TrEMBL record:
GO molecular function: single-stranded DNA binding
PANTHER family, A to Z: RPA-RELATED PROTEIN RADX
InterPro entries: NA-bd_OB-fold (IPR012340), RADX (IPR040893)
Gene from which this protein is expressed: Radx_1
UniProt cross-references to Pfam families, sorted A to Z: RADX
Name by which UniProt lists this protein: RADX protein
Amino acid sequence: SKLTSLGHLEMTWRSRVRFHPLLVRILHKSRLRYYGKPEKKMDMPYQAYFEIADGSGMMSMVLWNSLCPEWYHSMKVGTVLLLDKYGIKTSYPFKTHPTPGDSQMKRFATIEISLNVRDPPTEISIIPEEMVKPEWGLPEVKYRFITRSELDDLPNNHCCDVIGLVTFVGRAERARKKEQSEDFWLYRWAHAIDGTSDQPFILELFATSQPEVFERIHPMTYLVCTQMRVIRDLTENPSRTVYLTTSNESQIFITGWHKGQPYTKDAKVKNFIQWTKSQNEADQIKKTVIGGYYPFPRPPESFLKY
């Protein structure tokens, strides 16, 4: 059928009612958002953002309501979609944006693709990877992997991806989203090593929309975390308090979930796998810890400093 491109859509969307189908690849995926309120009677008040791209550039796509339970888990980073009968809206100005792996890619920020059950009912097809043709010109998923030795030179709020061997994982903890609020964030701390430094990655992992992964992080698993943000306490010793925290677009993968993921082709991931083959498993297991309370960043040694 006749296809259109994201770039062409941005130029012509105001003058059209009917749009040609789109062929795109998912580059980023947000966590699932629940926006239900007691006074509003909605069956499935869910929403999820994706960043999709074709040969012309990248744009946001929003999955709404009952399409979320139906499609959210099938739409993975790297998945190729054929979309028809989609809607177009002006972009929501306050949403978060992931940092693209390819800094040269053009971003279309004025509009976003809207996938709904009705008005119009969107037709979504997933194209299996083996059927994707090079001549379609779809971009590959690119990452920003760093090693632990590179972390100390990165600025606060820098976005990166990491892979490491888990040596510590703490219990799940809760923090109030706002004071006096009944809503909580669920998170846990983890340490992961990659052989490039004596220090581990310190990871603050908030529960993403992957409970089956979040609950099964354990020592000796290979952990991949994407779209992580560098956090530094610039007042204290900056190198001592550097850690990474998840963002709205973070994805977490552990041993058993890596097969077929786009990052398996990344050079730094391959280097890490080579390093793990040189390690003695019994020696590493002796250094691992699980559970317990993990106060971080550490409080000062004395009350005067506090």
